[in-house]
Amino acid sequence: MVTVAGRANVGKSTLVNRLVGHKVSITSPLPQTTRSRVMGIKNKGDAQIVYIDTPGLHVDAKRTIDRYMNRAARGSLEGVDCVILVISAPGWVAQDQQIFDLVQDQSCPVILGINKIDTMKDRQQLLPLIEQSSGKMPFAEIVPVSALTGENVVDLEKSVLGYLPEQPPLFPADQITDRSDKFVAAEFVREQVFRHTRQEVPYAVAVSVEQFEQTPKLLRIGAVVWVEKESQKGIIIGRAGDRLKKMGRLARERMEGYFESKVHLELWVKVREGWADSEVLLRSIEYGDE
Ligand SMILES: Nc1nc2c(ncn2[C@@H]2O[C@H](COP(=O)(O)OP(=O)(O)OP(=O)(O)O)[C@@H](O)[C@H]2O)c(=O)[nH]1
Ligand SMILES: [Mg+2]
Predict the structure, then answer these.
(1) Does residue 148 have its Cβ closer than 6 Å to ligand 1?
(2) How do residues 39-53 score in pLDDT, each as one tens digit?
(3) How many DSSP H helices and E strands does the chain contain?
(4) Model-level pTM?
(5) Which residues, other chains included, contact 70 with Cβ-Cβ below 8 Å and sequence gap of 6+?
(6) Domain 181-285: which CATH number of 3.40.50.720, 3.60.15.10, 3.30.56.10, 3.30.300.20
(7) Residue located nearest, by CA, to atom 11 of ligand 1
(8) Please, what CATH class does the domain formed by 2-161 belong to?
(9) CA 147 to mean position of chain CA atoms
(10) Mind listing the pLDDT tens digit for each residue in 130-160?
């Protein structure tokens, strides 16, 4: 098992999807998109690699949901064979330090992945960055990659394979994630909220799948988009329902790809005040299937 760790927004989930070859974890330009641990499973010949995608650590965790995310990130560092610490080009920033402090104490090998190298105009800048990084701790390897274009991701996989023990596979060969179909469906809806709303709205949203029914012709999925306030409900729905319709269509397309089935998706928007601040409500929404 390989944990992919790093601050928010460095591209951990994009990288896990690329390494696995399937979209198992949602991504967006906003920080704190990933809220819980998601395993992505890659079968390659007789090897199986289990990648663990984690939420980015936040320094300032005020809400229950934030503390939950930090716990999931920290807990994912325990008992794994290898960690990929992800930073992003052009180099180290202050927020990388907190997660660096945690992985520094790991007893397993730590590979440094320098992501987003496609954004570097001058590749000559990589050399000093690698040099600076190797001075911070004895990384097992330092691998520059682009999760977006896929550049060098094969080399990262090769590096990882060198640090995995020989053992029977943990999952069946056709499984690509440890999370349930309902969880994945809910995440595809949440992904669209992260991509189409701004400010506090994405952080006020949780999604729960209430209906998941395979009929001979299609998969019927019904989900509730929970918000914290009435005003946020209006934003999610949009003028004449436009935003909800668009997000629903895009989420449905993702679901059709993932489930390899025609999907009928129905969305409801409901207010549940204070869900992000309550353990009980959190568990009753989407965090119960851990
Ligand atoms: N240019 C470029 N963008 C990337 C690359 N990898 C990821 N991104 C973009 O960076 C943003 C964040 O990517 P995510 O994969 O969601 O980042 P994350 O580290 O999982 O973020 P959290 O889940 O919020 O901690 C998205 O807009 C991605 O498209 C890359 O290699 N190059
Ligand atoms: Mg993520």
Answers:
(1) yes
(2) 999 998 889 999 999
(3) 9, 9
(4) 0.97
(5) 55, 57, 58, 61
(6) 3.30.300.20
(7) 29
(8) alpha beta
(9) 13
(10) 999 999 999 999 999 999 999 999 999 999 9
